[in-house]
Amino acid sequence: MSRSMPNIIITGTPGVGKTSLCESLASSTNFQHLSINRVAKERNCYEGWDEDSQSWIVDEDKHRREQQLLDAIEDEVRGGGYLLDWHACDLFPDSWIDLVIVLRSESNNLYDRLKARKYSEKKLQENMDAEIMEVLLAEARDAFDKDVIVELQSNNPDDIESNVGRIGAWIAQWTLQNGGPTAEDGDGAWEARASKR
């Protein structure tokens, strides 16, 4: 898939700050924040709701639901410039993705965030275990080349700012190497904003 701008997955355990990072990146770039949870709900890619785990069910006919979800976003992401925000990354074809950011958070920070969301004790413990066992980092390593995976800390607002700066610099470098729009073209105002961070 030929793109003039990269596509980036922002993944990690629920509560690590994926949406906050995506929103900050989207405001400092002209990238589109694509919340996969929102897309799945809006386009009916979920099987239903599980009261026990307080989460949407995607596993009933997983392959069909995943394909439905991929079909729903393929035209949007084809040209690049998307921040794909989801708690998993292995469903995306590697040909769509240029960078995989796995956000991590210290246990005490994550616990406080999940508690503030009023997660059930079961759901809170499942997510804490996933973070401690590095489940999403392992998933990323299984699905993508190690050269496109970056693990970043997300414990406080300073981390978000630093991560926006690092990712912005990576975007600028990718754009230069791949002939995408630059600030000089008049199409890369995002690049200029990202490099100021």
In words, what does this structure look like?
The protein has 197 residues and is an alpha/beta fold. Helices cover 48% and strands 15% of the residues. It is built from 8 helices and 7 strands. The strands form 2 sheets. A 5-stranded parallel beta sheet has the order 2-5-1-6-7, with helices on both faces. Strands 3-4 form a two-stranded antiparallel ribbon. Strand 3 (48-50) and strand 4 form a beta hairpin. Helix 4 packs antiparallel against helix 5 (121-132) and helix 7 (157-178) crosses helix 8. The longest helix is centred in the last third of the chain and has 22 residues, at 157-178. The protein is globular, with a radius of gyration of 17 Å. The two termini are 30 Å apart. Residues 186-197 have low confidence and may be disordered.
Distance between the termini: 30 Å
Give the overall silhouette: globular
- The percentage helix is 40-55%
Q: Give the overall average pLDDT.
A: 85
Poorly predicted tracts of residues? 186-197
H/E element order: EHEHEEHEEHHHEHH
